[in-house]
Amino acid sequence: AAGGRALRWARGRAPARGFRASPRARTAMPSWVIDRYGSNEVLRFTTDMMFPIIHFPNEVIIKVHAASLNPIDLSMRSGYGATALNMKRDPLKLKTGVTEFPMTLGRDVSGVVMECGLGVSYFKPGDEVWAAIPPWKQGTLSEFVVASGNEVSFKPKCLSHTEAAALPYVGLTAWSALNQVGGLNQSNCSGKRILILGASGGVGTFAVQLMKAWDAHVTAVCSHDASTLVKKLGADDVIDYKSGNLEEQLKALPLFDFILDNVGGSTEKWALDLLKKWSGATYVTLVTPFLINMDKLGVADGMLQTGVTVGSKTLKHLLKGVHYRWAFFMPSGPSLDEIAELVDSGKIQPVIDEVFSFSEVPKAFLKLEGGHARGKTVINVISRQ
Length: 385
Prior knowledge:
By secondary structure, the protein is of the alpha/beta class. It has two domains: 28-168 and 351-380, Medium-chain alcohol dehydrogenases, catalytic domain (Quinone Oxidoreductase, Chain A, domain 1), CATH 3.90.180; 182-326, Rossmann fold. It has helices at residues 2-10, 71-77, 82-89, 161-164, 168-181, 202-213, 227-232, 246-251, 267-271, 290-297, 299-318, 333-344, 361-369; strands at residues 28-34, 43-50, 59-69, 103-104, 108-116, 128-132, 144-148, 152-154, 193-197, 217-222, 237-240, 258-261, 282-285, 323-326, 352-357, 376-380. The protein is globular. The two termini are 30 Å apart.
């Protein structure tokens, strides 16, 4: 991936360029922010959000054309993960008395590069790009956002900004679980039996398509009203978790080589029994207590408790002949490069539930909060995408 990205950078890209001050210097911009944690009433529109600044040579400023919402935005609005994220924002506690507010939510962005730092040689102003911004940085429900060049990739040519904004965060989360943590790739998936729990959400719909692109056999679990969508995305078998005892339905099927769990909860108690023993079969869950532990116990005790939990579970299941893993979203421009190639080749498509205008951000949050979305909730920051 790194070699391919280097070749793409070299192909007609501008030489390294520094930050250029705009003739009409700006200090503020429109943005949706929160000033405290809570429910939907904490969302506030402002035209006075501080304009992003390039602090490091590898950063770029992106003019946001479209963004989208993810469950993490709901969680962050309510304060979930604040302890860990604030530690990441200021690990040495140098900013005494400074808080994370006003905070801009939103992780996904599709837009156009406006400015580049001194160390950026692979993008230039005017390039159409997409990215998923890490949750410890200011988000994308804003006119502009700053990102590390290593988090950014060229937008798939076949997608509009509205379509492209639906993919980066869920795509990178699924990529982390399946490829980086699970070890699956294009050369080792053929014929493998993959089970995806929670297949109709953003991560699930992406995971189904990625596994089919890599020639795996996919069994998807979702509700009946989402089965048509999931089958259209390529799933070989679709199980309705409401149609009977899910555990018994899955035990009636041949054992699996890999399980991706987007649901968590009680499923973890029985799902690992569905794996082939002593064959390298792996269970990866995206539902972990890491941030909750740090919120409840503090940084040191939270990390210790988390380490003990994952260590004991890993050992317990290893002794039973299967691998147990946790996975998290990881920002990565090179991974987005690979995803963009799959999108442009027609193997992965965005799944969008509803599109809202920039003025309708609170309404979009309520939509996401209502659950049962079939795909992503997208925000058009610039109209006519």
